[in-house]
Design goal:
By secondary structure, the chain is mainly alpha-helical. 64% of the residues lie in helices and 1% in strands. The termini are far apart.
Length: 420
Amino acid sequence: MLPKGLPDLLLFTLKWLGLATLTGILAGSASALFLISLAKVTNIRQDNPWLFYCLPVAGFLIGLLYHHFGKEVEKGNNQIIDEVIEPREKISWRMAPFVLIGTLLTHLAGGSAGREGTAVQMGGSLTDQLTHFFPFSADDRRTLLICGVSAGFASVFGTPLAGTVFALEVYIIGRMRYEALIPALFAALAGDLICRFWGAHHTYYHIGTSTELNALPLLYAVAAGLVFAFGGRLFTTAISFFKNYFNKVPYPPMRPLIGGIVLLLLFTVVDETRFAGLGLGTIVESFSRQQPLYFFLLKILLTSLTLASGFKGGEVTPLFFVGATLGSAMALFIPLPVDLLAAMGFVAVFAAAANTPLACVLMGIELFGSEHAVFLAVACLVAYLFSGHTGIYSSQLIGSPKHMIWGIHKRKRLNDLGRN
């Protein structure tokens, strides 16, 4: 005789194994298409520097596309967060192709943007199309969207554990949706495997040094975490600041056109193509050579202008750039190995800006190895705690206070606190 409740658990597991696998196939295939296409347009831009002069044109085309055909999907990641928190309307299928086209145009012209937002939006929107074929309840649809986010995040970075926890952690600060744990894990694993099956490649990083685990290095990690909290807070503040100004432009397609002109002028003055696109080469270099302190500031400026004006892409890879270069520069002041500091910054600035510390700790372990887990965890948690209630996802709810000073806005959205 089967234990009481076991048949229901088996049915639940089989049901979501099938749905999560289907979600992983959709999101993983979309991420593979995106990553392969992104690599091609990046190579084209690097071989043709004159494409930087197309930034205003690319911005105007993106603005026209969303203004005339994509108003219902222009909220991007925040729309998916809204639907998970309170399911209302099905996400339009247009979100996936529009964000793919917009992101590729952004990177082709040299905009400073990432890729996480694109993968998450494609995963979430493609997954939500299944609701046209199956009679899902509101709770099941919520779980399905979580699976789409998990599969999209996991497949674009090659980090299934981080993708799983990110999808459970990102909606409500300080809370996790454990009821969706098994489906999210299945979807993340399937998405990652499918993406690799199609031949998409991920960037790998290496920490070649070892650091003894004792009190003094841990204190240094705490100090570094405080600096990374500042980096994450500065990033989110800059995007909000510039977005407020660009939103004053009455005709939306003009916003990315103006943003493209400003970016073109800045790139001309800086004369550094390393800040265009993803900047993966500089991120990798940060693990072996100390970077100038101003690198992270320039990346924040260029990325915030890119995204705030209406170009498409994600915030996460630029956050990796900001964190890795800031950590690398901190080797001048903090006596820890430069590769360890770069790795700590890589994940900790992301933790501070996205309010997802556990996902970032797991990402650090998946990317850099478990032998550095304690230092990565200390940096992520300190950066998260001291970054305040702010973030790159304005639709996040605040479920639990980070600590007694900032714990006065329970169950409010970040944009209810005056952040757009």
